[in-house]
Amino acid sequence: MNDIMIDVKEVTKIYKIYNRTRDRILDAAFPFLHIKHTDFYALSHVSFQVHKGEIVGIIGKNGSGKSTILKIITGVLIPSGGSVIVNGRISSILELGTGFNMDYTGIENIYLNGIILGISREEMKKRIPQILEFADIGDFVYQPVKNYSSGMFVRLAFAVAINVDPDILIVDEALAVGDTAFQAKCMAKMEQLMKSGTTILFVTHDMNTVRTLCKRCVYLENGRILSEGPAAELADLYLHKTRVSMNQEHLEIMERQKEIQKERKGKNIDYNNEFARKVDIFREGTGEVRFIACKVFNENGKEEYYIKYNEKVTIEMQIEFFEDIEVGLGYHIRDNKNMELLGSTLALEKIGKGVIKGKRGERFRIKFRTLLPILEGVYNIMLVMSVPVIANKTVLFVDLVNNAAIFEVGENIETKLWNKVHLDNEVTVERIN
Ligand SMILES: Nc1ncnc2c1ncn2[C@@H]1O[C@H](COP(=O)(O)OP(=O)(O)OP(=O)(O)O)[C@@H](O)[C@H]1O
C-alpha cells in the first residue's frame, strides 16, 4: 500500500544575491542584461518522504533551510529544481501572516482559509464555534488581523489549522510565540490529531518537543540533509553540535581556540581507567578537569543497578584537575529517550559559590544525595562540568559525559502512572455542602 503523504524529491531553492537593491529590479525587468549576481542555495537536492500518520520534525540551526522546505511543501514558494508531491489536504501555520489577509477581520480570514482549503462556506460556518473556542481571543475576531499581537495571530492560525480536518498539518515554530498554557493546549491537540492518523510535519528548535512528539527527524545543515533518522538520536546529535559550536565560539573569545582544539581529542583521558574507556564515545569538552568515576548507591550505601521508586540514593562522581581552574558541576537524569527529567548542580544546591576550585593533580569526590521519585524504567546519568562565559551569558563545557551511569527503577504497582516523575502531593478531601 502506498502511504506516502509527502514526497520531496531532489528539491533545490536558489536565491539570486545582488550587490545593490536596484540590480534586483533591473534583472527582473531586463533579464537579457544578465546583471551580475551570485546564486545562494537555500536548499540543495533535498529528498525525503513522510508516511501516513507519521509525525516528523525538521531540525537544524538558523538559516539551514527549514522554513524554506515547509514553504515549498505548502506551495507558498516554488522550488528552483526538484519536485514535491503531496497526497491530501494540507493545513499549515507558517510565518506569521502567511495565508491571512491583513485587512480582513479574524472571522473573514477563517472563511478565506476555508476557501483556500476547498471547504465550503456552509461547512466552515459549522466549525466557527470550535475555532473561536480554541483561539480564545474574544471580540478581536471582529477586528482586522493587522491589529493583532503576534500571540493572537498564532492562536487564530492554530485554531483554524487544526479544525479543518487536515490530512497533513505543517507547523513552523509557531508554538514558540504563544503563552505556555496555549502551547500546552496545542501540544495536546497535536497528539490527539496524531492519534487520529493526521500526518504532522513541524519545525522546532526545542529538542524536548522533538523527543516527545516525533519518532523521526530530518536534520538540515546549510540547505542539505545532514541526517535523517530516529528523533531521539538526532535530537542528541543536534544538541551535541550546538554545544560544540558554542564551545568553539567561546574559545575564540578566549583566544585559545587553536591550542585547545588540537589538544581536545583525548586530552587528559586515562584510557587505563575503566570508566574513561566506557564513556569515551559519549564525552566532549575542553578537558581541563575530567570526571574519572560515577556511581549510584542505594539507601543502604551499596552500589546498585536496581533502585526502588522514591529511594534515597547517592550519586557519586569523582573528578581530577589537570589545570588550576574553577568549575561548576552538576548531573542530569535522563530517561530511555534521553529526556532530561531531574538533576542538580552545585550552584542550585548553593554549595559555596557553586564551583569547585582545584589545582593540577587534585582529585575530588562529590556526592549528591537525593530522593528519586521516578517511576519504572531505565535511566542514565549525564555529568556536566562547565565554566561560565559571562559575555555570552552561557557556559563552556569542560567535561560533559553522557551515559556516565545507568540504573533501573523497578515496577511498583502503587505508582503505576503514565508520567515519569511523581512528587509527593499533600491531598485534602473535604465535603463542601
Ligand atoms: N528571499 C530570500 N532571499 C535570499 N535569501 C533568502 C531568502 N529567504 C531565505 N533566504 C536564506 O535562505 C536560508 C534558509 O532560510 P530559512 O528561513 O529556510 O532557514 P531556517 O532554517 O528556517 O532558519 P530559522 O531557524 O532562522 O528560521 C537562509 O540563509 C536565509 O537567509
From TrEMBL:
CDD domains: ABC_KpsT_Wzt, Wzt_C-like
Gene3D superfamilies per UniProt: abc- transporter (atp binding component) like domain, P-loop containing nucleotide triphosphate hydrolases
Domain named ABC transporter: residues: 23-247
Entry annotated with the keyword Protein biosynthesis: no
A GO MF label: ABC-type transporter activity
Gene Ontology cellular component annotations, sorted alphabetically: membrane
SUPFAM superfamilies assigned: P-loop containing nucleoside triphosphate hydrolases
Coiled-coil intervals: none
Pfam families: ABC_tran (PF00005), Wzt_C (PF14524)
PANTHER family listed in its UniProt record: TEICHOIC ACIDS EXPORT ATP-BINDING PROTEIN TAGH
Family the entry assigns: Belongs to the ABC transporter superfamily.
Name used for this protein in its record: ABC transporter ATP-binding protein
